[in-house]
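Case study B.
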Amino acid sequence: MKRRHFLQRSSTGALVVLSGKADQSWFDSHELVNLTILHTNDMHSRIEPFPMDGSRNEGLGGVAKRSSLIQRIRNQEPNVLLLDAGDIFQGTPYFNFFEGEVEIKAMSMMKYDAATIGNHDFDGGMDNLKSQMSKASFPMINCNYDFSHTVMHDQVLPYKVFHKAGIKIGVTGVGIKLESLVPKNLTRETQYLDPVAHAVKTASLLKNELNCDYVICLSHLGYKYKEEYIDDIKFASRSTNIDLIIGGHTHTFLREPEIVANANNEAVIVNQVGWAGIMLGRLDIQFERSRKNSCVSCKNLFVKNL
Amino acid sequence: MKIHWILFICLLFSSCQKHWQVAEVDPESYRFDKYNKVKADSSLVAFIEPFKQQLDKEMNEVIGEVAVPLIKNRPESTLGNFLADLILSQAEKCSGVSIDFAVQNYGGIRVPEVGAGPFTKSKAFDIMPFDNMITVIEAKGTVVRQLCNRMAQSNGWPISKSMQLVVDDGQLTDVYVHGEALNDSKTYVFALPDYVANGGGQCDFLIEQKRLPCHVLVRDAIINHVRELTTAGEKITATLTDRIISK
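Model:
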């Protein structure tokens, strides 16, 4: 087990993590379980590390090293979820020559649990995406693309529930607007639907009807735009029932995850780890099984003075 | 009386009902660089090997030499200028007509930098992994102005040296082609990736414009151009020439 520290914002920041001091009474028997979420985004077919050519990224990344590290973490932690936020394809000759087979098979060997669909995952066309996903040991999850009139109609899950040591984790996913971003001959009859409305609806189902303890949304919307386009920050602030957004698309290297107040003033964590498999993100989420309002070890992520 | 007992038991049960609550969250990230001592997973290495061999045979051919590092940046950059200029010269070769200017959409360039030294075929794939074709368009100055407005709004796209944009706080103020102010009623011939010609990057207004025949991938254009430089005994280089002036 590794050293623990807490998400924190500076005193000027509106969002803080404080240690809530709960009285530890004799009847407060509590059970702690650690869930380890590992995540990547925008791998862009970077199978080998960047070439040693004197450029800024030389030697960075590579699936073989990533696989070893994931294996090491799995050996230390019993409850691991490995997730990807899309744009698995496009960026090196591996995709031009092998059409995504190497990427999907490598991810399957690393035992990814789920991925969402990025705009570049359409680059080989829908038939190719379908045929590559048939080689995957993990599902594609998305709730705001309507694939019903395409070959992908039975290939994508709107959500999936994972069980880890008694904890139920619901995972859904959202994708970016495709018009003007992906050529129409690649997306065909795919319909883009409002990501916030569909994610919120799916998250409500996961939390309130399927009784998930934690809801994660994989997002390929992008971290933050000045313009009015929907991004992960706006999405988080308008959402409910989502605890964590694992983002992609903008290739943003966040120094630390960002905490955003949702529509009910509850904390949502937003994270993204660059691109090309240069980094692997990790969030250890410690759950306590306790009566409501009596969580002994809760260091509540909460939102102050908004 | 009985119902009260049931109620009481229910209340007791619900108050004791336990839930999983998030106690704390501990973020961390790992960077795969030379300081990261994790060993490569031999099963992944073995899986990749046959694919890698096939690619290496094709991709490791050195086709040119980069004299100075080429950087991708906004509004103007050496890598952007290199690409826009070669799109122009290769489009002229493939269409057989004189091209007024060329454009490469910024987002279509997929590396932040090309280091100095040998230029392998794989570098062309890194820069331009997409199978974008060069498209030659013939259109009025009004359409060119729309395109320039779009480029100004997105803080500048690579353009060939025959074009100059003046931008004031994201708004286009002036356009020059071959040193002359853009004439809205004149017809211009220009080259850009089909991604943009087909409306990508919010350029819907290009979809219906007249196209002249030219059939070459942007990536192949890069490879052809680099081979031509090498044959002529030249290295790959580019400079900044004030193509986009921000006021």
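Residues 195-209 of chain A form the longest helix (15 residues). The remaining cases will be described in the next quarterly update.
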